[in-house]
Amino acid sequence: MFTRLIALTLIKLAQTCNLVVPPNPLTAQGLATPYIYVDCDQTNATQSSFIEAVILNKVTGALSVYTPLIINAGTQPLTAPIVPTLSQDDIVGIWFGSNANTLILNTTEVTCVNGVVLNGVVSAFGQVAACNAGNFITTANDLINQGILNIPALQTGANGKTCYTTRSFAVVDQDPSDNVNSKYLSVGTQIAQFSAANKVAFPNATELDNGSDNLLLDSFILPALNCTPFTVPDLVDINTNRSAQILNELQAKKFQARPQALVPLGDPMVLVNGTENINKLNAYRSLVDQDPYKLASTRRYCHNLVYTGLPLIIGDQQFTNVSVSPTVGMNLFVFLVQRFIATLNNLNCLVLLNITAPVTLDANNNVALTPPIPVPTSTVPVTSSVTSSTVPSSVVPTVTSSTVPSSVVPSSVTSSTVPSSVVPVPVTSSTVTVPTSVNFNYIIPNQGNPQLCMCACQFQM
Predict the structure, then answer these.
(1) Is 432 helix (H, G, I), strand (E, B) or coil?
(2) Residue 452, beta-bridge partner list
(3) Which domain holds residue 10?
(4) Distance (Å, rounded) from C-alpha 93 to C-alpha 132?
(5) With bands split at pLDDT 50, 70 and 90, how would you rate the model's confidence at 311?
(6) Cis link prior to 25 (omega < 30° from 0)?
(7) CA within 20 to 30 Å of 288's CA: 334, 362, 384, 430, which one?
(8) The predicted structure's pLDDT at residue 274
(9) How many domains does the chain have?
């Protein structure tokens, strides 16, 4: 029986792992040569790193995916890696993900990057790296524009909405567009490529997965909504198709409607010593087919998380509440809410937006929703008791009378279960009714302009 280990996105080891890249990594022989892991243990699910190579034929537009192997220094592969067949018309791009905190590539291949050089010092991205990503992406977009490479359109999910992508605010967390879909098999100290044949050959192997947005989307969220990810032939697991990070990015770029969840300046992977850095942001975005400095405001990103992402997460509860998640014993709905709350905290969203928490989760995984009430501006007196007389009508929410179905919100939410800090208006009854929508005026920054603009918003529960 297989054991499956998934390192959660929210739990990472603060550890730096070095990965020795084989010679000529973009060739068939280079792809089939194991990478050597140094300073970390590839068989430890919280330290494992992962590689995903995507091959694109420049003439036909055909795509395929291959998983190069990573082994610990001083060990041998559990079984010899499959050698892929490449043609002279193929271009290879390689993307890396890690369950450890920081991955460093040791290589002389000039197209391989794991960070950006600033003042002569490399500032690593963290869990992300790539080889030949820029050339691959440029070629892919050229072929898309020529009609040679066809990207499948997004379907309609069981929720009646367009299926989500990696740039949907219902999917992303504090560090979007990170990590890969690759898997490995582990037996003792040895590692093998993931395939049906190897699972049969090693029935007691442990499956290692990369805790990524891509895995969460393709293996959990999309299936829960009866959506199908963009997949191509797998050159390791013969006669099967699978998805990949860059496939998700190409599809998201072409079809994701606004607002798009692009990597923000506050993403921990693009910070330099805790400070936002536009050069590092642009370098990171170049690896995942995102335009340089565009919609990069962390405040704007937080705004879209709360007012676009959360309503979608809540609206999908009937589907995700009965679906499994990466965490054993936790359904997908609770997992997504937990992840959403952590994302708001990690990006300091409540402070940036000046709002109260829109959702809470207690120790028993009960979800409580409240409208994200805007904090009054400096022109409004702040008193210990906020009433309609002290807050202008433009700031006080207008609440509809309808309520959320019991399937979405617990039938009875008492004042004892909702902290006073979450409900900033007086509660006159022992039962709090959570509205389906809240209309209010909300101040958000005008992108690229230090001035503020007033925007009429509606929070759909």
Answers:
(1) coil
(2) 445
(3) 3-296
(4) 5
(5) very high
(6) no
(7) 334
(8) 95
(9) 2
